[in-house]
Structure formats: structure tokens, C-alpha cells
TrEMBL record, chains A, B:
Residues 17-156 form the N-acetyltransferase domain. The keyword Endoplasmic reticulum applies. Its main location: endoplasmic reticulum. SUPFAM superfamilies: Acyl-CoA N-acyltransferases (Nat). It comes from Turnera subulata. One of its GO terms (biological process) is UDP-N-acetylglucosamine biosynthetic process. This is Glucosamine 6-phosphate N-acetyltransferase. It is found in: Endoplasmic reticulum membrane.
Length: 156, 156
């Protein structure tokens, strides 16, 4: 049992997004979450560089399936610097998705733990995220609690 | 009526935060929103520079009362760069507060309009914010709609 668990942990390790992940189905995975047309290599590279320029203040992580070579889970966190809370920092988790074919393997939990730990290591006093009522129970299992409501204004 | 309105608009203009606003009660204003002990000038300057280094990707705005010389309203927005929505951008509005002595003058609406317009001008496809149920009606008047729920994990 211990060995199986270790094997599973080794198999599905969370790591930072790499530019080569575009060819491993990263965009197709995001399409399971929201509107995401195919993106040119140039545009992807530019956005990758723009996000990377924030260093540890904006982290996109992934889980790759070593067997298929596909990206099967992802999530991101960015660190907001505030004046309140004595010039505190807040982690914002965004765009968490697990491949519909890879559900039930706790990959979402791994992603959230990775992002939450990153925010903690960056000195945040809290991490926040928005989710549907449907996903509330999942985040509660990850140690999150409901607090406020999310309001949105769309431009397009 | 037209003149009064113009006068009021001139009097309560929204502008970017300046480093000298610390001495105009900016921190005391934030204390009306959340925990915010007094901050040293050095720490304030460091955080001001850190936020300024993001340029238009992180904007803190204020309204100054020309009569008292005090900051009486503030809010911030930062621009998150995503891969989904065809490498889209999302504006995140945070830390909106109006001085309890300056309520009823539509200053909150001015702040939200300023931040929303900034997100639009930066090419965001949407702007989001979290608020209490109590403040939902105010944001609806600003053109926002409830969408999801906010989950939080506190480290301290």
C-alpha cells in the first residue's frame, strides 16, 4: 500500500508549466474549463514570457501523465501585493481544471495543495478563489471555507 | 444643476495613488475596511514601488477631499494574464472603501467606474470582485452581476 501510494505520487507530480506543454494538450485541457480557441505558438510564447516575467508572483502548474505524455491537470496562483493587513499579500487561485478522463485520482487536490503551499511560502496571509456552488464541497475538503460572493462584469 | 454637478465632479476626481498620500490618511482609510496597523514610511515606500513596478497591470486609485486634504475613497485593480479565452486578461478589483464620513456622494461608484474603465482599456474580457451580500446591490448598480462564490483559506 505504501509502495503503491509512493508510486502514484511519483507518477503524478505537480510541476511548473513549461513552454513545451502547449504541444502536450495544455490548451485543449483549458478548453474543458472555458472558451479557449487554439492559440498560435507565437502568441502562446508571448503570454508564457509575460507570465514568467512576474517570477514567483504568478505561477502556473501542471500535472503530466507520463504514460500518455499529456497534461491532465492545471491551476494557477498569483500573488497580490496590498497595503492593508500591514502591506500583506494575498494568493489568488485561478483556472483549476482536471482532465475529464483523469477524475477521481485526487489530482485536483494535488493542484490546490501545490498552489496553496506556494502562496504560503510567498508570505500570503490568505488564499482566495471563486468557484461554483457545485465545486464548493471539493474546496472544503482542501481546507477552504465560503466567505463572500463573486460579482462579474463582462465586456465581451 | 449642471454647474453644481460639474463642480462636484471637479471636486472629487479619481486619480492614481501617490506616495505622499500616506500622510493624507490613506492607511487610516484602509483601516475602515480591514486590519491595517500603522505602516512605516519605509515599508510603505517599498510596497508603493513594488506595486508601481507592475505599471498599468496594478493600479491603486484614490479620491482626495480638496477641503480637508484627506484621502476619502480608494480601490485597486490588477490585470491577470491568462492562457484561456485566447490568452485573455481579467481585471480583479480589490480593497474598495469610502470614508464613513463621505458616504452618499457616489464616490464608491466613481471608484468602481474608474477601475472598471481601466480594466476595459487594458483589454480585459471581464472584471471580477468579491463582496459581502450586504454590498451586492451597490455593485449591481455599477453594472455587476453575481456569478460564483468566494472560498478562502487563512494562514494567520
Amino acid at each position: 500500500m505504501q509502495n503503491n501510494s509512493s508510486h502514484c505520487d511519483q507518477k503524478f507530480q505537480v510541476r511548473k508549466l513549461e513552454i513545451s506543454d502547449k504541444s502536450k494538450g495544455f490548451i485543449e485541457l483549458l478548453q474543458q474549463l472555458s472558451i479557449c480557441d487554439s492559440v498560435s505558438d507565437k502568441r502562446f510564447a508571448e503570454r508564457f514570457e509575460a507570465i514568467s516575467s512576474y517570477g514567483d508572483d504568478h505561477l502556473v502548474c501542471v500535472i503530466e501523465d507520463d504514460v500518455s505524455g499529456k497534461i491532465i491537470a492545471t491551476g494557477s496562483v498569483f500573488i497580490e501585493k496590498k497595503f492593508l493587513r500591514n502591506c500583506g499579500k494575498v494568493g489568488h487561485i485561478e483556472d483549476v481544471v482536471v482532465d475529464s478522463c483523469a477524475r477521481g485520482m485526487q489530482l485536483g487536490k494535488k493542484i490546490i495543495e501545490f498552489l496553496t503551499n506556494h502562496a504560503y511560502s510567498m508570505g500570503c496571509y490568505k488564499v482566495i478563489l471563486d468557484c461554483s456552488n457545485e465545486n464548493k464541497a471539493f474546496y472544503e475538503k482542501c481546507g477552504y471555507k465560503q466567505k463572500e460572493i463573486q460579482m462579474v462584469k463582462y465586456f465581451i
